[in-house]
Amino acid sequence: MSEPNLKDLRREVLAANLRIPEAGLATLTWGNVSGVDRDAGVFVIKPSGVSYADLAEDDLVVVALEDGRVVDGRLKPSTDTETHRCLYRAFPSIGGVTHTHSRHAVAFAQARRPIPVLGTTHADTFNGPVPVTADLTAEQCAQNYEYNTGQVIVALLDGDRRRADEVPGALVSRHGPFTWGATATAALENAIVCEAVAEMALHTLALGSRLGATSEPPGHLLERHFTRKHGPDAYYGNATRAPKG
């Protein structure tokens, strides 16, 4: 990796990590974002246990994608580093990974329930429920726990790269959400959406229990909302304007 590219990746990963507390996704230091440079075979991730208020660009840790060794950095990388590495290795389209303990998404993870698709806000980002993994076994917890956490996500998605692109997140049972995207910024934004739709789902399900069963939205409506933002025929948004010169 050239030094300018590394500098740009560090800046993006730092900015994404600093948005975690701003978005209300973490208590204390319970969250991390990473970004990968596949040409260089490395990714940049938040150090373990460093508060967001104290986090600086030089604190970020550069890790080898192949074997998880620290390539650059004076601090220990996040304890979730091996989960990030597992996801990068399984899904080549992923450019960034985010993990948080945001409250509403964690509530679904602790209940071992997927976040259901109850409306178009969910369908704008996730083309289906945000799924929940199986519990890790005693053996998976005893050795290589963090990498095995990634493995249960990969197993949940059956290693399906298209599914990973269309539903860019999963809940690890009893633990919390992991989201991903084409960049570190996109991964963080998907974490924000995941928490938002989890909160909406909890309110919707609560209302449904009081007023009657919550009905499923029509599939054609959900498909329209997903495809207008994603895929070859997407038409949402505008191209970035070129700076005036």
What do you see in this structure?
The protein is α+β, with helices and mostly antiparallel strands. It has a single domain (3-227), classed as Class II aldolase/adducin N-terminal domain (L-fuculose-1-phosphate Aldolase), CATH 3.40.225. Helices cover 42% and strands 13% of the residues. A 7-stranded antiparallel sheet has the order 4-3-2-1-5-7-6, sandwiched between helices. A hairpin with a 3-residue loop joins strand 6 and strand 7. Helix 1 packs parallel to helix 8. It is globular. The protein starts with a helix and ends in an 18-residue tail after the last helix. The mean pLDDT is 92.
The beta-strand count equals 7
What does the largest sheet look like?
7 strands, antiparallel
Rg computed from alpha carbons, rounded to a whole number of angstroms:
18 Å
Give the H and E element order.
HEEEEHEHHHHHEEHH
**CATH architecture classification:** 3-Layer(aba) Sandwich
| SSE-based structural type | alpha+beta
Shape: globular
What is the subunit arrangement here? single chain
**Helix count from the secondary structure assignment:** 9
Q: Determine the N-to-C terminus distance.
A: 30 Å
Low-pLDDT runs of 5+ residues are none
Provide mean pLDDT, rounded. 92
How do the strands line up in the largest sheet?
4-3-2-1-5-7-6
CATH hierarchy, class:
Alpha Beta
β content, as a range? 5-15%
- As a percent range, the share of helical residues equals 40-55%
CATH topology label: L-fuculose-1-phosphate Aldolase
